[in-house]
Design a protein that fits this description.
The structure is a homodimer. By secondary structure, chain A is of the alpha+beta class. Chain A has seven helices and eight strands; from the N terminus they run H-E-E-E-E-E-E-H-E-E-H-H-H-H-H.
DNA sequence: GTGATTTGTTAATCTACATGAATGCATAGG
DNA sequence: CCTATGCATTCATGTAGATTAACAAATCAC
């Protein structure tokens, strides 16, 4: 969701809110018509499975948008939690504003591009999850989010990769030893 | 990509082509501006990793659309192969027609919805790949594609699930024994 | 039809990663 | 300041699924 000119132009019409580290913007089960644009800080979305285990779906550093598109699209209560990894400044957008209202052709084309980009990123992630080892996935994470590894606790990175913090620790140990 | 009225309306302007089982519609490395709408039959997309192993990305039975959106979006040569699991009748669409040309507002809104749906499906698949066991993934596959399990070779289902054919065979054995 | 290749199944062994527990550090609250 | 809780790391052990191999059934080529 890199092209953000349009979103920023909505800034004046929408609220910018400030949140502290750990604040929860959306809980599982809630009605979720909101999307969150990160002006400053770092937020993440995640599920909690039936064994109580967290699975980080994505991180959103500055200028990224985060939303529970699956639940919105199927008109279901939220499947994802969204909370702040750092203190953050967030523009809260109504999803209907982004996708449904009386936008003009250029805005709609822009949205088509935003969504295509999102599909592309997810396609890559699915292929990666199916075919790559934990080490390869860690390396792709570093590429995808080059600026955030030192801002995110190890356990969240592990959760994003689909492995345990212990496995990530061992992995990092091996990588460090090789260099 | 369930809402297909618009696509079907393009039918007359576009070519319908017939393919035999095994025919390849797109190869890795090719320029890929096409999307494929399946009128009849069954096609799939997949990657081949650097160890020569296939990973099925998705199946497209009747009325589904398949395309390598990642490569198109980033203007790269195709990452995905696309071929026919069964003899198929396919409408070949130019991606630019679907996403880029002078469409009217309703058509663009429709495309936004198609892409949102696609994002939603991929979000679900990512979460599933991260958190679910092979057995759970198999059950979700049966839900996602209720009509095709008997039309697709086991090895392709295994590949879609991210496991080996042997593991799937054992799994199916266990499920059958329990019933 | 016949032989050859591909497919699905079962079983033995191997391995990447999970799980559980112990330890040293850090950060937070009183 | 001290204690408590959480976090990262390491190690011992467990396990889901990979790998390899063998074989039967199905499909393909001719």
């Amino acid at each position: 969701m890199e092209n953000i000119n349009e979103i920023l132009s909505l800034d004046s019409k929408e609220n910018t809110s400030n949140f502290s580290k750990g604040d929860i913007l959306q809980r599982e089960g809630e009605n979720c018509s909101k999307a969150f644009f990160v002006k400053k800080g770092l937020i993440r979305s995640y599920t909690i499975d039936n064994k109580g285990k967290e699975h980080v779906f994505m991180f959103a550093p500055e200028k990224w948008v985060i939303a529970d598109i699956e639940s919105q699209e199927f008109n279901q209560p939220a499947k994802l939690f969204i909370d702040c990894v750092e203190a953050s400044e967030v523009i809260i957008l109504d999803r209907r504003l982004l996708f449904k209202s009386d936008l003009n052709i250029d805005q709609l084309k822009n949205n088509v591009n935003l969504l295509s980009r999102r599909v592309a990123v997810l396609q890559r992630r699915v292929i990666m999850l199916m075919s790559a080892s934990a080490k390869d996935r860690y390396e792709l994470f570093l590429e995808t989010y080059p600026k955030i590894p030192n801002r995110v606790p190890q356990r969240m990175i592990a959760s994003y990769l689909g492995i345990t913090p212990q496995a990530l620790s061992t992995l990092r140990g091996e990588i460090a030893r090789k260099k």
